[in-house]
């Protein structure tokens, strides 16, 4: 049903009457049924009865009170028709709780830029029509108000988050405030930036370390425990990614790369047993292994997004010190990027079957960032897989690519068909020509025996060679 509105105004001048009539005509064109004395009050009608009926009539959904200096003075002095209307409206306003019916239209401002309002409407919020520009700016607001369709509506109350109903206390998390301090220091060019960065990263790792298993978990609900702990680590994943997006392309890139290298070594420590734990099973640390695997992929995705190709090359080609608890062989103290990979057994399909990769399914479900969607994670994993194929000492099983689909080619590799974009891939891999890259990739795929990965070839129908656009790299100028 269309709204019906009565316009109350003062006959300040003929031009003011014409302006009010123009507004009334425009509102009628917008579907509002307007009651105006110029339309509806005829010779022989009782003007006071007309005014009272329009203010009190329940079929009139709104009363638009056109407030200028003259209207305010007449209303306060109870003069003429305005005075009569104001007495009726004042009683209506103070006798009823809900009075959204009465809308002040602010047409004139004082020298101090205060609107002229009758005393009984001083506390009410109005719509500013004090200039032609403001009329145009605020017209939609008025029409939406009359139709009860505001631009912003209060959302429906949802369910409390899981952490509210969880009776297990989470460790305190000062990392958010530390990141804000670091971000502010970076943006303001403060000295001692490394101190702010170190405080932030330390807070992240202390939070994550607080969730590491140090006592034998309950085997009956261990899978739920893994998913629960992993869920608590997702905010840390996002903070690490926010850091990468913020600092990866700053002028002092060397300090950033050193901090990133140290961070990745700390990831290896997180995914291993704490030093004080002397009796354990590797699966106890599955939540953190999954967190490290996923966060590593997000870091590569973030570096790709900001174009930090040299940094990606550095990440892929560096060796990382094993954590102390994993340093059994003194001649094997360093590992490559393959050490960041992880699997998971914590998730079953609804019908009780196993997913091709529970880890990939978990990562996909929690790909909540709009700036780095799941496709970006798949792209980062395919690039990581390529880096491992080119390194005879590394292996990688690209689990998220189970969701790539038939003949899927990801955007970074599609663009690498062009020479200018192939240069980016060349920087990352350290290989100058497409032919050399094709040869070395073929050797790497054969070394890893990917032709025997039947889950990809038969069930997921994925061709790594095609996904990397190998045959078309650097073929377009």
List key phrases describing it:
mainly alpha, Rossmann fold, 2 domains, 5-stranded parallel beta sheet, two-stranded antiparallel sheet
Walk me through what this model shows.
This protein is mainly α. It folds into two domains: 4-147, Rossmann fold (3-Layer(aba) Sandwich); 176-370. It contains 20 helices and seven strands. The chain has helices at residues 14-29, 37-40, 47-56, 69-77, 80-95, 132-147, 162-165, 175-188, 193-209, 222-247, 253-270, 286-306, 309-317, 358-365, 374-389, 411-415, 419-429, 434-447, 454-460, 464-467; strands spanning 4-8, 33-35, 62-67, 102-106, 127-128, 320-321, 334-335. A five-stranded parallel beta sheet has the order 2-1-3-4-5, with helices on both faces. A two-stranded antiparallel ribbon has the order 6-7. Strand 1, helix 1 and strand 2 (33-35) form a beta-alpha-beta unit. Helix 13 (309-317) runs parallel beside helix 17 (419-429). It is elongated, with a radius of gyration of 34 Å.
Summarize the amount of helix as a percent range. 40-55%
What is the terminal-to-terminal distance?
62 Å
Q: Could you list the spans in which at least 5 consecutive residues all have pLDDT below 50?
A: none
Q: Quick one: how many beta strands? A: 7
Q: Spatial order of the strands in the main sheet?
A: 2-1-3-4-5
Mean pLDDT across residues: 86
Structural class: mainly alpha
Overall domain count: 2
Round the Cα radius of gyration to an integer and report it. 34 Å
Largest sheet entry: 5 strands, parallel
Shape: elongated
- Range of strand content: 5-15%
Q: Quickly count the helices.
A: 20
SSE topology string = EHEHHEHHEEHHHHHHHHEEHHHHHHH
């Amino acid at each position: 049903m269309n709204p019906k509105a009565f316009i109350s105004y003062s006959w300040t001048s003929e031009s003011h009457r014409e302006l009010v009539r123009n507004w009334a005509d425009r509102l009628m064109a917008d579907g509002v049924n307007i009651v105006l004395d110029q339309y509806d009050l005829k010779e022989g009608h009782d003007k006071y009865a007309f005014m009272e009926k329009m203010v009190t009539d329940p079929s009139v959904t709104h009363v638009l009170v056109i407030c200028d200096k003259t209207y305010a003075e007449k209303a306060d002095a109870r003069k003429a028709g305005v005075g009569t209307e104001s007495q009726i409206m004042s009683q209506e306003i103070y006798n009823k709780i809900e009075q959204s019916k009465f809308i002040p239209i602010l047409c004139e401002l004082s020298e101090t830029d205060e609107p002229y309002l009758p005393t009984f409407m001083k506390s009410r919020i109005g719509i500013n029509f004090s200039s032609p520009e403001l009329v145009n700016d605020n017209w939609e607001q008025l029409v939406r108000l009359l139709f009860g369709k505001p631009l912003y509506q209060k959302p429906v109350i949802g369910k409390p988050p899981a952490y509210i109903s969880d009776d297990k206390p989470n460790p305190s998390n000062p990392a958010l405030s530390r990141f804000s301090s670091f971000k502010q220091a970076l943006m303001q060019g403060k000295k001692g930036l490394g101190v702010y960065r170190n405080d932030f990263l330390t807070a992240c790792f202390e939070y994550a370390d607080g969730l590491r298993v140090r006592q034998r978990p309950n085997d009956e609900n261990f899978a739920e425990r893994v998913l629960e702990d992993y869920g608590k680590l997702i905010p840390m994943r996002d903070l690490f990614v926010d850091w990468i997006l913020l600092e990866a392309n700053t002028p002092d890139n060397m300090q950033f790369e050193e901090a990133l290298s140290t961070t990745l070594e700390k990831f290896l420590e997180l995914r291993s047993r704490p030093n004080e734990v002397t009796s354990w099973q590797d699966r106890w640390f599955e939540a953190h292994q999954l967190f490290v695997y996923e966060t590593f992929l997000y870091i590569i995705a973030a570096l790709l997004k900001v174009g930090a190709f040299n940094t990606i090359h550095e990440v892929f080609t560096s060796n990382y010190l094993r954590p102390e608890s994993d340093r059994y062989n003194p001649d094997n103290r360093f590992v490559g990027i393959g050490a960041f990979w992880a699997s998971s057994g914590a998730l079953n399909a609804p019908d009780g079957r196993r997913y091709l990769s529970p880890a990939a399914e978990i990562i996909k479900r929690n790909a909540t960032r709009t700036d780095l969607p799941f496709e970006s994670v798949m792209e980062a994993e395919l690039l990581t897989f390529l880096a491992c194929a080119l390194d005879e000492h590394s292996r990688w099983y690209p689990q998220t690519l189970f969701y790539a689909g038939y003949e899927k080619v990801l955007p970074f590799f599609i663009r690498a068909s062009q020479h200018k974009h192939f240069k980016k891939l060349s920087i990352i891999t350290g290989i100058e020509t497409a032919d050399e890259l094709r040869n070395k990739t073929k050797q790497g795929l054969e070394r890893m025996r990917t032709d025997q990965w039947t889950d990809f070839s038969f069930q997921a129908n994925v061709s790594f060679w095609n996904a990397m656009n190998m045959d078309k790299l650097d073929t377009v100028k």
